[in-house]
């Protein structure tokens, strides 16, 4: 076994995945990194220059390692074993997203203005997402989870990303009396409501969001809104475009929906979403083997290249469970 790389820093979700003795597989290989599943958790192994999220671990040179889909992965002490290579993480630094902090009610007018600024600058969601976003803004969370979870294309469907933005913003707004979606006793956790529809990776990011953990660019947007900074909103939205081709905007829609719900901002009426593109994970499981499934390409804006193809002979367990393109 050769120590081929050393991790520099890791997000909170990545650190939770690196429990000693965990075993799993590489699910998806990218030009500048790879997604691995370790037990119930996911881990994004990526070059330091890649946009950073809660599942990320920054590893210089990871793109040069011979990582392939289906490769066994295990945690041995403070090493992540990838085939014949090892990544050391004993000195890895924790990298958490910026925190909102306590929100005073006197800040509400500025928060309203910043939220309107973000909504004006975000691209408009498609018709099949608008109804779910409107349901979130109206507080109809169970309806929204049914409409949004698993709805859309990409590695994490846009609907899953909307729910993640909403969950994190709801937690941040708790000091203003907003519902806390991560604690028992109130509403059911969004990840529970979305479990039968969302993709596995979408659920992993959603569970991070319920702990207040978002991709850094999205966290910067939430902080800017909660500080009432329209200039901060403009800066954050510029970086948010780099988090996937659609994921960044979708998280933004969820954030603004949560603020709209708490502060009573009006939301434009929505039309019925295109349910033909919103697929249950269970439907996908019954659709045939790995060779019959279509794995969506990762947004090039995030990693600069599409994912490697998964061979038709590979077992179904290495194929990420995600919405199939029609």
Question: What features would you describe in this structure?
Answer:
- The chain is α/β, with parallel strands linked by helices and 326 residues long.
- The chain has 2 domains: 91 residues, no CATH class; 159 residues, no CATH class.
- 36% of the residues lie in helices and 14% in strands.
- It contains 12 helices and 10 strands.
- The protein has a 10-stranded mixed beta sheet with strand order 1-9-8-7-3-4-5-6-2-10.
- Helix 2 runs antiparallel to helix 10.
- It is globular, with a radius of gyration of 19 Å.
- The relative contact order is 0.17.
- The C terminus is likely disordered.
Integer-rounded radius of gyration: 19 Å
Mean pLDDT: 80
Shape: globular
Task: Give a short account of the largest sheet.
Answer: 10 strands, mixed
Helix content: 25-40%
DSSP, total strands: 10
Any idea how many domains? 2
β-sheet strand percentage = 5-15%
Low-pLDDT residue spans: 178-186, 269-326
Listing every helix as H and every strand as E from the N terminus to the C terminus, the arrangement reads EEHEEEEEEEEHHHHHHHHHHH
User: How many helices does DSSP assign?
Assistant: 12
Strand order of the largest sheet: 1-9-8-7-3-4-5-6-2-10
Give the oligomeric state. single chain
Structural class: alpha/beta
Determine the N-to-C terminus distance: 43 Å
């Amino acid at each position: 076994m050769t120590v081929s790389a050393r991790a520099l820093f890791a997000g909170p979700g990545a650190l939770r995945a690196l429990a000693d003795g965990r075993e799993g597989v590489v699910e998806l290989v990218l030009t500048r990194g790879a997604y691995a599943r370790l037990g119930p958790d996911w881990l994004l192994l990526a070059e330091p220059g890649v946009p950073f999220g809660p599942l990320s671990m920054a590893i210089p040179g990871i793109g040069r390692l011979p990582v392939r889909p289906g490769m066994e992965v295990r945690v041995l002490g403070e090493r992540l074993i990838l085939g014949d290579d090892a990544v050391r993480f004993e000195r890895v630094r924790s990298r958490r997203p910026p925190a909102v902090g306590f929100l005073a009610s006197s800040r509400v007018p500025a928060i309203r203005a910043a939220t309107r600024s973000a909504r004006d600058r975000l691209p408009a969601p498609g018709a099949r997402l608008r109804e779910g976003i409107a349901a979130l803004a109206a507080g109809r969370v169970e309806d929204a989870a049914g409409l949004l979870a698993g709805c859309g294309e990409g590695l994490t469907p846009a609907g899953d990303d909307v729910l993640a933005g909403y969950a994190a913003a709801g937690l941040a707004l708790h000091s203003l009396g907003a519902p806390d979606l991560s604690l028992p006793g109130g509403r059911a956790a969004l990840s529970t409501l979305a479990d039968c529809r969302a993709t596995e990776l979408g659920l992993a990011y959603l569970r991070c969001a319920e702990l207040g953990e978002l991709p850094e660019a999205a966290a910067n947007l939430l902080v800017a809104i909660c500080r009432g900074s329209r200039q901060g909103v403009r800066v954050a939205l510029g970086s948010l475009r780099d988090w996937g081709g659609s994921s960044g905007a979708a998280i933004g829609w969820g954030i603004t929906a949560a603020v709209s719900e708490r502060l009573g901002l009006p939301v434009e009426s929505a039309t019925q979403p295109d349910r033909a593109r919103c697929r249950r994970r269970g439907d996908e499981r019954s659709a045939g083997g790995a060779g019959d499934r279509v794995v969506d390409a990762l947004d090039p804006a995030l990693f600069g290249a599409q994912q490697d193809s998964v061979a038709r002979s590979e077992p179904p367990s290495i194929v990420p469970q995600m919405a199939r393109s029609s």
